[in-house]
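Morning!

This is the sequence you dropped in the shared folder:
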Amino acid sequence: MWPFICQFIEKLFRETIEPAVRGANNHLSTFSFTKIDIGHQPLRINGVKVYTENVDKRQIILDLQISFVGNCEIDLEIKRYFCRAGVKSIQIHGTMRVILEPLIGDMPLIGALSLFFLRKPLLEINWTGLTNLLDVPGLNGLSDTIILDIISNYLVLPNRITVPLVSEVQIAQLRFPMPKGVLRIHFIEAQDLEGKDTYLKGIVKGKSDPYGIIRVGNQIFQSKVIKENLNPKWNEVYEALVYEHPGQELEIELFDEDPDKDDFLGSLMIDLIEVEKERLLDEWFTLDEVSKGKLHLKLEWLTLMPTAENLDKVLTSIRADKDQANDGLSSALLILYLDSARNLPVSCILTDTLSL
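The structure's back. C-alpha cells below.
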C-alpha cells in the first residue's frame, strides 16, 4: 500500500496544505512545493487496539501505534523572496486513531474513513535551508520548535482527515462531529514539589517557581507562575471540549520557570473515561517521573444537552461559582459550521489576484 499512501500524501500537500499556507500570510502568497517524495521506507504499525465497549454499533474504532523513520525529499520555495528550503528526513511516532463509520449494508461496507492523532505525536524533521525560510517577513518570529508544534497540532484532534468511500455519506458530520462532552478542570494546588532553584553553585537548595501546562488533544492551557513556592495554590479553571473517548487523556506537566530552561517538576495522565464515569473527581494525584510531589485537581464531566430545559439551573450554579474562572464558566456551547459561499463579489477575487 505504501506507494499509494505516498500518492495520497502528495495530493494532501498540494491540494490542502499548499493553499492553506498561501492564505495564511500575504508574504507566503507565492509558496509552493517543487518536489514531494516521501521515500521508499514504509510506515510501520507496531500494535493495534480495537474498542468493543462504549462504542456505537455503526462504527469500528482502531488505535494504531505507528512509527515512521524515513528519508524523504520535500522541496519548497517562496518565489517572491527567492527562498528555497526543504526536508530530507522525518520521524513520527504516536497513536493514530482510525474510525470506520458509518457501517453500511452494501459494499464496501464502510461509508468513510477518519484519521487523526489523539494527542501530539513525537515529530522530528531534518530541515535544509531552514534559516532562509525563517528570514522571510512574517516568519522571522518562528522557530524550529514552533513550526513542529504547528504541524503536530494540525494532525491532532479536533483536526482530522476524513475520506468518504461512498457518495451518500454526510461528510460534514464526520469531519466536524459534535463533542462528546466538556471537561471542566479545576487546577487547584500542589504540595511538596521538588526545589529546583539552587544557590552558591548548587550547595544550597532553594525553592521553585512552578506553573502547569494542561493538554486535552490540541487544546493547551498554561497556568500562572507562583514564585518561590513548593506548595503553590493556583485556583484556576479551564474548560476543554472532548471529541473522542475512550482513549483520550488529560495530560498535565509541571515546570519550574527559569531564565534559561525550565526544569521539569512532574507529570500526570488521567483517562477521561474514568472522569465521565464518576462525573466528578476531587482528588490529590501523585506526580509521575519525579521522586515527590502531589497535585490537587477537581475534574467535572459536563454532558451536552440538545435543549435548553436545564439552562436556568446551570446558570444559577455558575453564578454561585463565578469567582472560579477569570473569564467565567460556560453555560452552553454554540457550534457553527461554515459550509460554503456563493456569488461572492468579483472585486474580492480581483483584490486577491492583485495582491499576488
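Headline: The chain has seven helices and 17 strands.

More detail when I'm at my desk.
O.
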